[in-house]
Amino acid sequence: MNKTVNQKAWFLVLPVLILVAFSAVIPLMTVVNYSVQDTFGQNQFFWAGLEWFEEMLDSDRMWAALGRQLMFSGIILAIEVPLGIFVALNMPKSGFWSSFCLVLMSLPLLIPWNVVGTIWQIFGRVDIGLLGYTLDALGISYNYTQDTFAAWATIVVMDVWHWTSLVALLAFAGLKSIPDAYYQAAKIDQANRWAVFRFIELPKMAGVLMIAILLRFMDSFMIYTEPFVVTGGGPGNATTLLSIDLVKMALGQFDLGPAAAFSLMYFLVILLISFVFYTVMTTIDAKEG
Amino acid sequence: MALEFKSVSKVVNGETHIHPTDLTLEAGTMNVLLGPTSSGKTSLMRLMAGLDVPTAGQVFWEGTDVTGMRVQDRKVAMVYQQFINYPSMTVYDNIASPLRLMGKSKAEIDTAVKQAAALMQLEPMLDRKPLELSGGQQQRCALARALVKNAGLVLLDEPLANLDYKLREELRVEIPKIFEESGAVFVYATTEPEEALLLGGNTATMWEGRVTQFGLTPKVYRQPVDATTARVFSDPPMNFLDLTKKGEALTFGQGQTAPATGPLAELADGSYIAGFRPNHVEIAQPAAGAIMFDTRLSVTELTGSETFVHLDYAGRKWVGLIHGVHDLKLGSALPVYLDPRHIYIFSETGDLVAPASYALAA
Predict the structure, then answer these.
(1) In chain A, which residues have their Cβ closer than 8 Å to the Cβ of B77?
(2) 2.20.25.420, 1.10.3720.10, 2.30.40.10, 3.30.450.40: CATH of A60-288
(3) What count of CB pairs under 8 Å joins A to B?
(4) Given an 8 Å threshold on Cβ–Cβ distance, is A179 in contact with B82?
(5) How many CB atoms lie within 10 A of CB A177?
(6) Closest CA to B192 of B151, B221, B230, B234
(7) To the nearest 5 percent, what fractions of chain A are helix, strand and coil?
């Protein structure tokens, strides 16, 4: 096929290029700039090369935060994806109750992140929070400011509460797109509920589930506001996830160089995992159809 | 084997999908359900399969009442207009799936799958996933799955509607042969009169949730019991015009008169609706005794060797199918001829009074 060469097309994308340059590329370059220099204030910079990157790679602090971060993302994905699918499977398919459920499910998604944090921060307090008070009254020791397990449980449950809806809504959209004839065919073939899920619903949902997992992974990997509001990264460093650690480093200690190097590596890790994940999932998707 | 409906009806949310229907479908012959979209073909098939329970009436299978028996407990196979296969399984596993659910042995399954695959020409594709196949192959896979089940009742719901022309021709010839050998009761739904005629066997014409007529396909075509059946079983639909007979004189439409000749002479006095098929319209060389109608030409469509002419006559819209390509001027007057032997006479309520005499002779 002969394609018409038309260089004028570049002019049409130019506005977008300029916009992206200002919104993404130039700020990113600033970070790159910081990451290879050292500064002691007064706008004086000294060349540092890859020193900050080496320092960060040797830093136990960053590896620990990365470990916590991976654990957090792993846990919430392991809960939210199956739970979201389960909710979607049990939602009414049409009619008033279907719309009602959809609105109900969307509500947590509409609440600003810091408000979600505040809600759970108060909800979990032993003195005035409904959850904390009830657990305490039942004799269960629960204090997310002092107990590591309680702190983790709180931020995990909070994230599940906030985001399972997204997975459920996407899975529901996937389910709705399956023609009724598939279910009839399965019925006629005498397939049981599990077989219908395994051989019809799951393969047909694979595409949207991939998007759901990707979105939830990236979002949870970058999570900052909610756990920061609830636990502030504590007790100790128990819930100091990557972005909380980064902010502590950059703004708390004003270590701009290491923080910039950290940021870049953080960015690359997300990019890399997302890319690997996407590639693997699309291959599976192509195979499964 | 036979499937029998005794005044079966289906009402969903106060809306009647199927009016009380009596129907007996025998094995060993093709049973065609013919009707336009949403005339109730699929609803009727769902009742036959047991996917839906009738609101009233009974369904008998080989003389046993199976009303309300779940589809899982019957031996039914169904193929749809969409190509329905399990997306994550290979073609082999797709065809094998109903047999595995039946708990057949590995060797039995293998033999049956290979045999069905051979019949459907799927042998080279057994290791592929359905989405890697062409539309025709996907539908063959679905057909093979229906075939291996060895079901007593095989329902095909417009199975060829989504295939291209050439594949349809091929499969239309193959499908009846393959399934008729299995000795199953065989039901085939289609929207196309031509397909019903090509398939032969018996045809049930459907209109707005009713079976308007059921019988041998050629007979239903030649002697439709009412105007609705005639309209359903004609593509383009049958043309109609008002007709009054008084003594020896016929009055058509808005006042055109003609002497009553041929079969029309035997008609009792009264008002009727006359019907004729598009292919009986002539624009030249009229047969002896043909009646001329002054129509106005509104649209022409060329199909290569034939021309569709859309005509206005006395407030009615007609379609004529004329052999050959003609250079006709749109909007101009066009006299067309009709042999009285090709005219069906219906009462004003649409019931057949007299079939066209050519149809009786054939």
Answers:
(1) 188
(2) 1.10.3720.10
(3) 59
(4) yes
(5) 11
(6) B234
(7) 75, 0, 25
Q: What is the pLDDT of residues B30-55, one digit of tens each?
A: 899 999 988 989 999 999 988 888 99
Residue B77 and residue B147 in contact, taking contact as beta carbons nearer than 8 Å: yes
User: Which residues in B have their CB inside 8 Å of a CB on A?
Assistant: 46, 49, 51, 71-72, 76-78, 80-82, 84, 86-89, 97-98, 101-102, 129-132, 145, 149
- Per-residue pLDDT tens digits for B51-79: 888 999 899 988 888 888 888 888 888 99
**Other C-beta atoms within 10 Å of B260: how many?**
16
Please give, rounded to a whole number of angstroms, the shortest distance from the CA of A81 to a CA of chain B. 20
Which parts of chain A sit beneath pLDDT 50? 289
Given the cut 0.85, state whether the ipTM is greater than it. Answer: no
CATH 3.40.50.300 fits B2-231, yes or no: yes
- Beta-carbon contacts of B25 under 8 Å, excluding residues fewer than 6 positions away, are B2, B3, B4, B31, B48, B185, B187, B202
Q: Is A185 on the interface with B (CB under 8 A)?
A: yes
Query: What residue in B sits closest to A206 (Cα-Cα)?
Result: B88
Give the tens place of pLDDT for each residue, A117-171: 888 888 888 888 888 888 888 888 888 888 888 889 889 999 999 999 999 999 9
Superfamily of domain B237-361: Nucleic acid-binding proteins (2.40.50.140)
pLDDT of B304 reads: 82
Query: Does A184 contact chain B (CB < 8 Å)?
Result: yes
B chain contacts of residue A202, beta-carbon cutoff 8 Å: 88
Residue A93 contacts B where some CB pair is shorter than 8 Å: no
Residues of chain B with C-beta less than 8 angstroms from the C-beta of A188: 49, 51, 71-72, 76-78
Q: Please check whether residue B132 is in contact with residue B56, taking contact to mean a CB–CB distance below 8 angstroms.
A: no
Contact at CB, A188 and B77, closer than 8 angstroms: yes
Instruction: Judge whether B319 and B236 are in contact, CB under 8 Å.
Output: yes
All structural domains of chain B with their residue ranges: 2-231, 237-361
Domain segments of chain A as ranges: 60-288
